[in-house]
Amino acid sequence: MSSSDLDIPGEGSFFTDQHPSEMDALCPPPPGPSRPQRHYERMGERTGTSFCQTLIHLLKGNIGTGLLGLPLAVKNAGLLVGPISLLVMGLIAIHCMRLLVRCANHLCGRMDRPSMTYGEAMQYGMENVSWLRRHSHCGKQTVNLFLIITQLGFCCVYFVFLSDNIKQVVESANATTFNCQNATNQTDVLVPSFDSRLYMLCFLPPFILLVFIPNLKYLAPMSLIANLVMSASLVLIYIYSIMNIRYPIDLPKVGRGKDYPLFFGTAIFAFEGIGVVLPLENKMQKPHTFIPALYLGMSIVTFLYISLGTIGYMCFKEHISGSITLNLPNCWTYQAVKLLYCFGIFITFALQFYVPAEILLPSLVARVTERWKKTVDLLLRALLVVFTCALAILIPELDLVISLVGSVSSSFLALIFPPILEIMTFHREGMSPLVILKNILISLVGFVGFVTGTYIAFEQIVARNALRATDSSSAVH
Questions:
Q1: Is the CB of residue 241 less than 8 Å from the CB of residue 308?
Q2: pLDDT at residue 338 greater than cutoff 70
């Protein structure tokens, strides 16, 4: 008997897949009874999202703060190596998403299930290997653990992003002009205020109130507005960066080898949209059209990543910051860009927080009496937000926290797990040795990036904290 046969819904495991994802909240399933569907029955004839809706959700799930950090990533890799590496990483990430969908569809047909989550796909894939079968539940738990780490990591990045951008707007407010033609090429800080970590504490109460909202559907209108203003902000960032490239462009074509792991962490952080792939495919009206939507959507995403990363580095050169918004000039148009993007990120925080909260909290809330369930739920949500804020305060460097989150968790979800899952799923069906070798190489690349990226990120964090402590000590004396 497999481990899945022993699963009892509602037993209160910390890593159960019985909870909805953020896509379940924003795109609820159609009304009416559900029934098991075999693989061939998944091809249409049910209500759900259209091709265009799926494409939009796919773009939303992949475009965020990671995009804004890619110009610095290109700097770390070099003007030539950076764009080429982004293209290669994009192709590998898309391929791994395709592997995950293929394995999930195959396992759905075999297990007679209508849909499957990432964690369940890993569990049933392990059950396909005799010597891993008794430990298959650990596969689901491991995937869910990395999903939790990734989503909470995103929340930490949002704290740092908001504090850095709002701090810069506040400090330069007195010198901000309405004339963007004569504005400097970079925001000048004229009135220093308090430390960015204190700004994070200021954002703590609003974030806690935001995650108290019981259903993400209430945030749907605000989420739509946030997506529109973030899109408009990106257009303005593109226009400014293209129009302010100065020639000749004398930038290193190849970056320092020591900085390349930081590039890897930032790039894989940006490409880590694999968590929304299966929820989107499961909710499509015609699931067989998901792969074309995936290829089209991720091609657009890859183009945006390469173009903004390259153009942003060419525009701001060696002065590029952890987010390109921090390099925008001192005029109200571009200060508004920062504020609008901050609004979009603020709303997105609730979506990213939803996944770890729905995995972790129900099992804890189930342990208390009905009278205290609501109170305990709100308290635990508040504590989880405080935890993410504390982590952000410990690492108040935007570029390093992005690279660290990408290296630690995104590398596993986006690069390491999918090739291994394909080997486990199809190993009995005569896989080509070249396919197995290809999958091993992809997973190995992800693991090397995880080790080197994590090490270099921690090394840089320690070095910058030591420098910050030295500067503070010098200021006191």
A1: yes
A2: yes
